[in-house]
Specification:
single chain; mainly beta; two-stranded antiparallel ribbon; globular
């Protein structure tokens, strides 16, 4: 199944747009010890009303011979997070080994 549509928030009046938003690296990847780490800018949805248990980071770049919207990682928030008529923000952690969302060791 397409990871960008299964279990995705589906109500367009919720303040969420299908497919999510593009992430932007907040800095170049760095080495933390012997681990390469990436940091993304936080991302927000305003005037939002929905509940999310996690998010999916995926690569939407078209590459011949590869499946579209390839998953990079799934992020579990640890519990349901709900916003009602407010701003829903995903805050990305420090760019260090053991913390960064994307790490290659």
């Amino acid at each position: 199944a397409d990871p960008t549509s299964t279990y995705e928030v589906t109500t367009t009046s919720s303040g969420y747009t299908a497919g999510g938003k593009s992430l932007t690296a907040s800095a170049d990847p760095v080495l933390s010890g012997d681990t390469a780490c990436v940091k993304f800018n936080n991302i927000s949805w305003t005037s939002a009303s929905f509940t999310a248990r996690g998010c999916l980071i995926y690569n939407s770049t078209s590459v011949t011979g590869f499946t579209a919207n390839r998953a990079v990682c799934a992020v579990n928030f640890g519990s349901d997070k709900t916003v009602t008529s407010g701003t829903f923000t995903v805050e990305f952690p420090a760019q260090t080994a053991g913390n960064a969302i994307v790490q290659i060791a």
